[in-house]
């Protein structure tokens, strides 16, 4: 259950949204200007997509926080008999889907930077930069959906109209086998699945940036040797 304790939290929330919108606007302008000059890069597509995912995450969080405030609580409670509103909007979309969208986005950005810097003249880099933006976006979303698909096997309900606390009641298909009809095991299994994916993403991203640092160091050393020879 999420709650807002003070007005400062609200101010911070809206400030971050405003900052995201400004950054996204500039990225889109740069991307459009680059395309007019026939400069294509998957980096801008991934950056804009990541910003969009972050904004959607904050929007869903905002709705989730105020789910018990009229008239939202009436709306949520009236939809309690339906599978999608009671489980997927709150648990699936808010926690898992957007978590994995952001994780996949970070990994994709790390891989793109590594390929662009360490393998600049390769066919892989040219293929990535020439790929349609829509194809890249579909790929990111598909991976996030794949990672978060186990939550489709969960079921839940709202405990009461006042708090709208979600309780899980049935089997969850996760990396770790869990017991049926155990909400604790469902949460534990999904949490472990998320932890494995996040740790794997950290390892991949770290490896990418270590490769970039190594490449930059070698390039700098080669440049210093070139200046020495010129002298």
From TrEMBL:
It holds the Pfam family 7TM_GPCR_Srv. The keyword DNA repair does not apply. Gene3D superfamilies: Rhodopsin 7-helix transmembrane proteins (1.20.1070.10). The chain crosses the membrane at residues 12-32, 44-69, 89-111, 132-153, 193-212. Keywords: Membrane, Transmembrane, Transmembrane helix. It comes from the Eukaryota. The keyword Transmembrane helix applies. This is G protein-coupled receptor.
